[in-house]
Amino acid sequence: MALSLNADTRLLVVAPHPDDESIATGELIQQVRASGGDVQILLLTNGDNNPWPQRWVERRLRIGVDERRRWGERRRGEVERALRQLGVDPAALHPLGWPDMGITTLLCENFDQGVSTMTTYLDRCRPNLLAIPALGDHHPDHGAAHVLARLAVAQWQAGAPELLAYLVHGREEEVTGRVKLDSSVGLHANKMAALACHQSQMTLSGKRMRRLAGRPERYLAVKGGLPREDASVLPWNPPSSLHPWLHLTVADRTGVRDWPWSKAPIAQDGQGRYVLHAFAEGAIGPAFAKLHMYVPSPWIFDRWGWCEL
Hints:
This protein is 37% helix and 21% strand. By secondary structure, it is of the alpha/beta class. It is globular, with a radius of gyration of 20 Å.
């Protein structure tokens, strides 16, 4: 599938953290601008909960509130420079200042606020092309951002933008490949120059960042289709040894519900699959489920993550 970009294109990129806009959509942004279209960036967090690069760059061990705020301000400056490199006026950056590594919590505890904020920026930017993180991205902020964006679009009355999902953390074959941009040496070189503006991240993780940004830009075209017969079948079959620590979360237009695995409205079918029985009566629009554990861990990425029901 090929994208049709022209002077009427209004692209809104939902970026959970500074640098996501360059890694995932650097060439798309340039192509929209080259076609005469408009680009806006909705930056969900300042990327301030980023202690190891900060410790490395600032040669400090303790990271307090003031240090985190300063780091977030630094990263905000970096994303503005990256946007200039990509041909976008920094005035097109809309920072929300949501908690870094906290978008899942915001989704669960402040659902109405999160969806309302997203809808406000849909009204303000009025995109006809919306680039959002992939639901299967392993970073919890990215998966939660996808859910919030999809539920906001479902409530938005002013239009139905074309939806593209991009992957940063994870295996490309899991969620990408239906839409691929044409590229060029010049576009890619300028994208990498924009990535280099994120110096706070490149200092410690430059090799990984260049690898992520070096992949061809491929997107999943997100379509709202007819419900499947197996829409309530969950894709996970976790070992029983983990059941005491597992939680199941369901999000749809009516809000968010969460249960310990042992109390979740699920049952196994004849094939041993877990089937969810938790849809609100008469609910319409997209619905999502997440399997996770409330166990402290230094590993930040999701083991199971979200699925669409």
